[in-house]
Fold these 2 entries.
Entry 1:
Amino acid sequence: MVQGGPELMLLSGLLLIPFVGSLVLLLWPAGASPQRLRLVTIVILLVQLALSLVVVWAFDPAAAGMQLQEQHSWVPGIGLDYALGVDGLSLPLVLINAALTLVAAVITRDIDRRPRIYFAMLLLISGAVNGAFLAENLLLFFLFYELELIPLWLLISVWGGVDRAYAATKFLIFTAISGMLILGAFLGLSLLTGSVDFSLTPVLSDRLAMGGQLLLLGALLIGFGIKIPLVPFHNWLPDAHTQASTPVSVMLAGVLLKLGTYGLLRFGLQLFPEAWARLAPGLAIWAAISVLYGSLAAIAQTDMKRMVAFSSVGHMGYVLLAAAANTPVALLGAVFQMVSHGLISALLFLLVGIVYRKTGTRDLQVLHGLLNPEKGLPLTGSLMIVAVMASAGLPGMAGFISEFLVFRGSIGIFPVATLLSMVGSGLTAVYFLLLVNRAFFGRLAVTPPTGDPQVDGRLDVRLAPVAPRETLPAIALAAAVVLLGLVPASLGHLSEVATTAMATVASTVAAISSGVL
Amino acid sequence: MSAALPLPLQFTWLIPVYGFSGMLLSLPWASGWIKRNGPRPAAYLNLLVTLLAVIHGSLVIRDVFAIGPQHLDFAWFKAADLDLRLGFDLSLTNLAALELVTTMSLICQVYALGYLDKEWSLARFYALIGFFEGAMSGVVLSSNVFLSYFLLEMLTLSTYLLVGFWYAQPLVVTAARDAFLTKRVGDVLLLMGVVALAAWAGSLEFNDLYVWAAEAANQGRVGPLAGTLLGLGLIAGPMGKCAQFPMHLWLDEAMEGPNPASILRNSVVVTCGAIVLLKLMPVVAPLSPLATQVLLVVGTISALGGGLVALAQVDIKRAFSYGTTSYLGLVFIAIGLQQPGIALLLLLAHGLARALQFMGVGSIIATTNCQDLTELGGIGTRMPATLLAFMVGGAGVTALVPLGGFWCFGLMLNVLLPAHPQLAAVFLLTNLLTTANVIRVLRSVFGGAPLPKTRRTPECNWLMALPMVSLTVLVLLVPLIMQRIDPVPGIAAFPPALGLAVLLSGCAGVLVGCLLPKDEFWSRSRQPVVRVLQDLLAYDFYTPELYRRIIVMPVASIARFVLWVDRTLVKGLVDGVGRLSLSTAEGLKLTISGQLQSYVLTLIVGILMLLAAFQWFRGGLS
């Protein structure tokens, strides 16, 4: 294992590669073909992925606390330091970020408008997300958290669907409010505790009265709750997803939502353990409501993409449940759930994207029988079955172990909320089975049913074959989902020390201050 | 694991892997990468690995006979206080069940070569069967509840895919959906139980759980409500797997799938579910007397209800699949009364005989392309092997001397009569109903005059006939196998009077079966009472309709309500705020009049308000 010294600067590399790459793409000579720009982006992202793997190698899973730390004073007057570090909570997310951005770049096709800006923005998002996951300074986190906003807004509003302006503006306003609340909470923490230091200090909040703590934590909860998103702050997500192109949906669901859950764990739980313990029962109920609401709303959807978007709302609720329970197993489950949701929802969006490109619709009332071996999309359909089963928590795939850890860790603390969330997990099977049954089973058809059996399903449809290069990223993601489901220890050993320490510290602090110890 | 163990024993964990590897080996053909020479190689590879599993299993049995039961244990995932392990219990019971699973899988795979002769997607079928077999072999060997759950869910998945094999047909689509969702309900309830056990008991090994449950019950560590809920959750999974009331609908609909899979589903899959229940029973019983009662009630309802509903089915596969529900009801009663030995014997007798029955059915369907009893008839002795399979299989699932069922029923009655005479009556009545159904089907398929679809009925091809005849011999040998497995107190350890009672119930069943009108045309009776009864049974007591009303429709309406909330309230609020800010801006725009006085007035009012606010704020602070 490598001891992270200032001379190594591995983590800065994770920021520099995408940022510099983004700059390079912006300055690329005009008139370059989109294919070439895509290739350059893929090469840059491969380097980023390789460096992320180097960080995994250099990371010592047995050691607690931040590793590979870098610290430079930046604007001392306002307490902004360039402080980076990685632990078992952020490392898997950094890896997911690199992998899914690569997937997003690989599946990007037909970018005819301003390809330079498109790929530059993609890299900018990836770099900003890395920065947010690695930042050890509250203000630095906030900077990166906001930095990702504008590129994503552009990606939706320039390369999105018909109603993109509405969706992009909604996304922008929601996320800007989220950012304001988070900045307000950070500033409030420094103001009320009288500290000019914005470094990540878990015990700062015990200088505060409970009222102040609850106020600041409340602001953080709503701020990150918008990003995750939790009901009732989820309204931007289905619109953003339906209007965004497939690669952007992959980024949004797979990577960007994790900023919210990461923030919840890192800043909500770690900075305010005492107030967190106070609010935890309410948070568990909130999680259960979010899970059930997302699942039930998904059942009633007819647009495949909206259905997957609502399933995200439901599945991110598990992370809140685990965070509320705050036991070592539950927090490890939260990390697992973030990673597996990233992989699975990316896979789902990717496959829905293929269906949309081949058929021109995502309407479940129109699509039928896509599994047809000769004229349909058999491989896409098979992968879709894998994806929905993984999402429904079938064993042998990543979703199961994540949910099992979350439920196992939470049931002792909040039995009712956990059981309700498990009902939500059962409902996942309902809506995704409806999706597979309607769109992929039955006779092949891509027209609305007329009710006349002579017509329905008898039109000779022949869909354009899906090229292997289109399904290759999906196969890779599906393989990752199965691999993580069969060998969960591969992720577990990276994160276990960090999540255990987090749960222990948080519960100890809470216990000390409530006078139990 | 000590190094001294014989090699086949050390690698017992490979046996489930054989099945799964069969799936992987079939993939190149199933996915269409290899198109040359058709999909047959995938089938041969699967047969090979299954044969390997059978041989390996018998080697393990030989070793276990020599050195006694063994336990294999591998760490899978460990975090904080959670330790998930893959454990295999190599007891003779488990290994016997394993051999039943692998042998049946092998026989069915040979049979499927004949039955699905011209099927395009043969390779996909074999891939799924391999998956199926792997999951089942794992379930019967598993020594902890986590692994059992893990593999039961895989069974659910493969059932879904096998039932949905011919996914272009509308009935198949609903059948696959119902099979998955019904089982999934049971699985989620089981998962709740498993998660609760993991949190409360720590270890998930069955043996540790037995100790924990006994202690917890003695010391009152688990409250009565929690214990009851836990018990109900744990039995829900097997109930779904064994197609017990109220989760029985899927098995009947699942008959839309290919017949070789139906053979496995009706014989060994339900056996797997019952074996898991058997293993869970020592946990459930001490904690939750109610769950035990529920098992008996569910078993009784399933046994009698299934037997009655079977009588009114016109689909030959469905008529027998309700028989499976009915028979498993009896097994549930045996398990609920904590008679594991008899339950296992019942399962063994049932598994082989039911499989044989379904092979006969498959042979009829393959020859006539028809599974409607009203269109079958008059085959007579033109299909001798099939007729023999029908008769021996039918005798096996009923309690006819000297086949397996008779001895199990006798033993069971012997246990039941002193304590639960009413349950003994259930056994006899179920036997009557089952026998009546077997006779009814036998009459309509083989008796009478040939109908258009049965004019030309040659015997099925040798790939189907060979496994069918072999299994016929095996079913006839079941009593000997049972005697070998359960030498103490012996399979005939019951008074002759009870044997006579069992026989008489069978004879009554034969009588009823002969008296039942033959469904040559599916005409509903003109007598209103009979017609109502006929409909009631034919439509399974209207349970599908009932479920639609009390489960599907409420869930759908709640979902629509949530969607309405989402569209109207949540989105409405968001859009409303947006519109409000825009219209405010539009309104304010009109106040710009250009008059200097009004600007000055606005300024002064603003400053005054600010000052007042400051003053109030400071007053509030001091």
Entry 2:
Amino acid sequence: MGVGLWLLIALLAAPFVNAQPTEADLEAGEQIYLKRCAHCHGVDGDGVGASTDVVYPKPRDFTSGVYKFRTHHETEEGNWLASDADIARSIREGLHGSSMPGWETVLTAQQIDQLVHYIKTFAEVFEEDAPGTPLSFANEIPSSPESIAKGKEIFETVFDCQICHGTEGRGNGPDALAGLEDDWGYPIWPANLTKPWTYRGGSGRRDIFRNIALGIAGTPMPPFADPDPMAEALETDDPEEKQEIEALARELQENIWHTVNYVQSLWTYPQEPEVKSSLTAKRVEGALPSSPDDAAWQAADINYYPLVGQVIEEPRLFAPMTVGVEAQALHNGEEIAFRLVWDDRTESAPGEDEEVETFVDAVALQFSSKPLSGMEKPYFLMGDASYPTDLWYWRNDPGSVVLAQAQGAATFQVGNTGGGLVGQGLHDNGQYRVVIKRALQTAQADAEVQFPVGTFIPFSVTGWDGSNGESGGYLRTVMAWYNLYLEPEPSKAPIYLLLAGIGFGLIVEFSALYVTRKNHG
Amino acid sequence: MRLSIHLKSLLTLIAAIFVFSVVVPYVSAPIPGQLYGWYVITTLFVIYLYVSSSEASWEEFISPVRQLLLARTALMKPLRIVVFIVVPLICGWYFSTWAAGGATPPGGLRVIHPTPPSSVNFQGKQLVLQDISVSPIREDEAHLAEHIENGRIIYYENCFFCHGDALQGKGHFAQGFNPAPADFQASGTIAQLSESYLFWRIAKGGPGLPSESTPWDSAMPIWEDFLTEEEIWQVIAYLYDTTGHEPRVMDHGGGDHGGGH
């Protein structure tokens, strides 16, 4: 009996003993940390490393003990603590849309555990306290039009999400525009809920539920179900009171699930779209749409392109705020029209901020100024002296479009040459939508881009977010060259080819029949 | 059990298509469209050679077709009519869609590792690449660890945006560029190159590429404008140290010799 009892105690205690890292684990964790993590998070874990100044969001300061993502409620001491599994997941999968990559391709599960133990030693709170009760994901409500409608109501009136995330979820609510800061005093923007691949903690249904229920520690995102709404039910002996608390807790869970369903309904794409190598400009009859909200655009193909900071020539843009642009094009044999759509939380006005110099928001389509033969193209960053580029530059003041020609970023200058361009654009609830039109052919065929139908023409898009200090030839978001293809006039060739194919089939068949009958018939 | 010659041919064709469209893309890269077509045609030709290798096998292969064409049974007569209508329609459909889908974007072959120049002018100083068999900082063995450590800092201040923390070319800006940033962990990049080759590629960047390597598309900066000669050697040492690859060593004859040691 005595031995059995001791064995039982030893077995029960085993998981806790194992959870305590050995000296060897901590040492291994330190070695991995110095090799893989210290250049961003700092040798002392304070978030100050070689790349701290050139990334947004900033690397985590581990001495704070604050981790964005946790699946445990507030502790009795009032601490928000991530569990080992929570921290391990952030290391394994990375923080999406930030410069923290997923390490699962590089480190083993054991190495990640060692790392977790090591980085916890930077903060005393992990010695003094342990994570609270685990978050319950019960009472899940599957998505349906009714639940989404309910979720929208809760989003706007109960949880008041739009105050930061905006009514269409682009992270442009009034509090966001007034300026938010994280716990370290760095400026921070609420997530753009329409782009799930940028959700730092993942875009699974439980990830969204977790963020609403427990908030995001260190940021202005508050918890809506913390402390544990069930905690009081465990303490009371009155069955009626207990039932009441449980009913309230269930209602809260259901409300969060409705909100999860609404948030998912805001997604423009479920994941970052793959870049297609060609954008097709469909041929349409009659006048091309001038307005970006014209219904005619629904017929046009939409290609998504990531936009990234110009980090190639000095001065470099390390922390862009724009993540991508959607491009569409239509032509009618005479004219071509482009529609560009991108999310920008702020409609920047020069001089609006005393600390950061602000410029006007702008976008440009880029083409080769000269006709191209063979594979040669202008340098994708505004060309050079032998291969200049045309930039169809639209700026939001109050929406003028001009032609700028550049021979490299240093020469980029916006004048007032119209170049036959017509543009119209608007900033609406955290999103820009712009249309730029021009004739397919111009008089200066050798010095301005021309658009022969049925051919592939290299194009790219570049953007300027004025309130992020972006302007000029260098500080801007860029994209690689991709192809634009102008759909040719529908030809009658397919009908002739159809007939030729049928004829070919018949000839083969009757020849075979003739030969077979002759030899075997 | 003996498989019929038709089943054998069909299984061979399915197996070949499986290899071309699943196995090959899995182990290396997808086969380009035109080449894929030639592979399938070659497979069909091999099957034809097999079935026509003897009189008996050819007879076995062709007899159902012959029975259909001669249509001597009540079942075969309507079947022949159906086949004679369907086959020309398939031909017609194939011909017309083939013509409609004729527009393919230009995609010239890009030389990934072009021949390096024999020397480069680095910030006004002439460096004869052929004479640099190993990185000069490797000769300073006592301080090699410090050089590598400095290389790490340079990497994280400048390179990781595109080439990534894991040195796999998957940094947070990588998706914006085409061609994609180099994957240093892969066997086809720095593992096959000498340190002086890397020096040239880093110092002169995308715009320093010859035209067969599409310099206008490359997002690689001209690092000569940002880093010193020693800093470039340091970051090169960091790349080899972290990936575990060995640089190729050039002898004074100028040629590349594999093996590293």
